[in-house]
Amino acid sequence: MASFQHSLARIAVWNLAGFNPFNQALGIPASSERVQKQAEGLALLDAELITLVEVSPIEHIDRLAVALAEFGLTYEKKIIAQPNGNIHIGFLHKPELEVSDPQLIDGSEGDDPGGRQAVVVDVSVGRFKAKLIAVHLKSGRDRPEQQIRDSQCRIIGAEIARIRQTPGLTQRTILLMGDFNMIPGQDVSNFHHLGGDDLMDFVSCWDLQDRFSHILSKGRANLLDGFAVSRTFATDYVRGSLRLFPMHWTMNMGREAFKDEVSDHLPFVASFRIF
Q: In this predicted structure, what is the pLDDT of residue 20?
């Protein structure tokens, strides 16, 4: 592994808005300008590891890696196909980081037969070692959707508890991130079950200055994406470092234009000590 000459590693999460209502199998077309614009945004983000939600089609992650190389950035990919549908969860990471052993969490689609399963990977750089769980939970603001998320969160919370009880992993940092489709203060039961018996610290609920990440068609925005770190033994998260990355501003775009041309979500990024 190449030497990584930094004291911190930056880990980001971004929903690429790959859902195509006109052709779900097509996702983001290869010829779309969105490919190059998303790569430009990722180049400006310049994180060491990016968790990508709504990768569609699955080959879209390869297109991004190729486009990022045009900006002089080398990223490796890790992705595992979802058993249901054409929307996937993947990871882009710089070669200095080791991201390995991607696995689906069995049953984590819950009571949604076409839902996405959570993905867990091992992350290692310097002295930093973590289990990263990436999620894309059921969308919707009504009670039936919240109950489906409850069913998904129970499975993921149980997996978090299992990791914490596994010999060799009892003191491992656990990271949880993705499109939660949950709003702090509203989806209380979702947060309760996803917290894995109070094992997770939802830093996006208290250590984030901005209160939005999802851009709505009505011009408003809300905080649907989430970022959590295990409460115990996770001393590597740099408090105050979690930020909403204003990708629209870095690309010299207004929020509405960004929604139409790049994504309807903005990324989170946080720093972690690796020494």
A: 85
